[in-house]
Design goal:
The complex is a heterodimer of chains A (83) and B (409).
Chain A (H helix, E strand, L loop, with lengths): L3 H13 L12 H4 L3 H15 L7 H5 L3 H17 L1
Chain B lengths: L2 E10 L2 E2 L1 H10 L5 E2 L12 E2 L20 H17 L8 E6 L5 H5 L2 H6 L11 H5 L3 H10 L5 E4 L5 H14 L5 E8 L4 H9 L29 E9 H6 L6 E10 L9 H15 L8 E3 L6 H15 L8 E2 L2 H4 L3 H18 L1 E2 L22 E2 L4 E8 L3 E8 L6
Parallel strand pairs in B: 5-6, 5-7, 10-11, 10-14
Antiparallel strand pairs in B: 1-2, 1-8, 1-9, 3-4, 7-8, 9-15, 12-13, 14-15
Helix pairs in contact in B: 2-6, 7-13, 10-11
């Protein structure tokens, strides 16, 4: 089974219609050539895929890079498993 | 300043594109079918004028995939109208004015079950729900698609919306606020909640076993309207500029009249309709003797058919019985805010071809409806001037008049 990071990478690439290779650790929204509306849709697809909701806090609202995104998803997925 | 029509686009239950649409309408073919994709098992009405064979992913606008259906339908109709017109010019002098009665209601409606029952509740809502559902989404995306930067707004006058949009666009051009405007109406009301809401009003036909025969305007055996979806877009231009660039010219829009009943939210009023008709004729500088054909509102509700007939008789007097008046809703169903624009497109095609489309399913006229409704078969006749009626909930009456251009197509 692929890691959470791999799954997030696939979803972003598919939603933003870019190569998965460009969605790497350290890459950002700017690198992916996406605007905030496109990114909102990608986040929605991630939430739907993992059946989670991003917390409505400052970090989640400001997220714009791959590593933070993966960290948030891992946090929510783990919290769901624990619950 | 004269305003002319240089392009037509239509998406309707009886055909996508004006060729297919006009073939159906002329031949009296209905687009009403058993409604699909909506659970109608607990509803009294199970038929609608649904647009089938429409593939939004084939639209030339790349962002179209993720838009509400009312915007997708408008984009489809717009592609056809703009391509035919060859619209060009300073983007700041071009506008987009659309009408819609219920906007992106489907986007809201389709998410209601999840919003109320899914464990993630409100977090389940699509993040673009607001920009998809907003009433001016269609006009906005058309402007983005074509890079148009002039006047852009969306009017909502229920079932008159499309006609209001065309009338307002004509005025903007006449008064110098734009050189050309993409105008029309669009509606996608066949979502579960909206369709059920129309059922709740008890104004829809229940002739579920015979969909094509369900809409019976002006007929004694009518049992209500049939809800439908669709869009129609026209390109309106200053006549001098249109001629200068050699654009095709379908018609001159000569008159726009509007009024409000000021009486009741849903029951129509003869006085209100008469006021709008007179307003349009005055605007066009046209006498009642010049009207060759009336494209009726003709919804197939008792309230509409009898009121509309009385209003026409009051304005046209002795001439009323001599002027053919037909309802293409008898074939399309009622596409609410798109209907006025669809009927305007139909009127442009009538002018071009000298053909009056029929009111189908009219075999036993209502004794209170005693005009010439062109029953069941289209009629060929010379046409120079046409009046198109639309009346709406909220008491909004909108009339457009158009006439054949000096140099025809």
């Amino acid at each position: 089974m692929s890691t959470i990071a791999d799954q997030v990478r696939e979803i972003i690439a598919s939603e933003l219609k870019i190569e998965a290779d460009s969605v790497t650790s350290g890459s950002t929204l700017e690198d992916w050539g996406a605007d905030s509306l496109d990114f909102l849709e990608a986040i929605f697809a991630i939430e739907t895929h993992f059946d989670i909701s991003f917390p409505d806090d400052e970090e989640s609202r400001a997220v714009s890079d791959f590593d933070s995104l993966v960290r948030i998803v891992e946090g929510e997925v783990n919290a769901k498993v624990a619950a | 300043m004269k305003v002319v029509v240089t392009g037509l686009g239509v998406v309707s239950s009886a055909g996508i594109g004006k060729a297919s649409f006009w073939d159906s309408i002329r031949e009296g073919r209905s687009g009403v079918k058993t409604l699909e994709g909506v659970d109608t098992s607990r509803l009294k009405t199970r038929i609608a004028g649904q647009v089938t064979d429409f593939d939004p992913s084939a639209l030339s606008y790349s962002a179209a995939r993720n838009l509400d259906r009312f915007t997708q339908l408008a984009l489809k109709a717009c592609e056809e109208a703009v391509e035919e017109s060859g619209l060009s010019g300073d983007p700041g002098r071009l506008g987009v004015i659309l009408g819609t009665g219920v906007g992106g209601i489907g986007t809201i409606d389709d998410q209601q079950p999840a919003l109320h029952t899914h464990q993630r509740g409100p977090q389940i809502l699509h993040p673009l729900t607001v920009p998809k559902a907003m009433f001016n989404a269609a006009a906005g995306h058309i402007a983005i698609h074509y890079g148009i930067r002039g006047p852009n707004f969306t009017v909502s006058t229920a079932c008159s919306s499309g006609a209001s949009a065309i009338g307002e666009a004509v005025r903007l051009i006449r008064h110098g606020y734009a050189d050309a405007i993409i105008a029309g109406g669009t509606e996608a009301p066949l979502s579960y909640g909206m369709f059920a809401a129309w059922n709740a009003m008890r104004v829809m036909s229940v002739r579920n076993d015979d969909p094509a025969a369900a809409v019976r305007p002006f007929s004694k055996d009518r049992d209500g309207l049939v809800l439908s979806e669709g869009a129609a877009i026209v390109v309106l231009e200053r006549e001098d500029l249109a001629r200068k660039r050699g654009a095709p010219i379908y018609a001159e829009v000569t008159g726009y009249g509007c009024s409000n009943d000021g009486v009741h939210p849903t029951r129509p009023s003869v006085d209100g309709q008469v006021a709008a008709i007179r307003d349009a004729l005055r605007d066009a500088g046209m006498s009642v003797d010049e009207v060759d054909y009336i494209n009726a509102h003709g919804t197939a509700t008792t309230a509409n058919d009898v009121t509309e007939t009385k209003a026409i008789k009051q304005v046209l007097g002795d001439r009323a019985a001599k002027v053919p008046m037909s309802s293409i809703k008898s074939m399309l169903g009622h596409a609410l805010g798109a209907s006025g624009a669809i009927e305007f497109v139909s009127s442009c095609l009538s002018l071009r071809d000298g053909i009056v489309p029929p009111t189908v399913n009219l075999h036993t006229p209502d004794p209170d409806c005693d005009l010439d409704y062109v029953p069941n078969e289209a009629r060929e006749m010379p046409l120079n001037a046409i009046m198109s009626n639309t009346f709406a909930f909220g008491g909004c009456n909108v009339i457009l008049t158009l006439r054949k251009p000096e140099n025809t197509l």
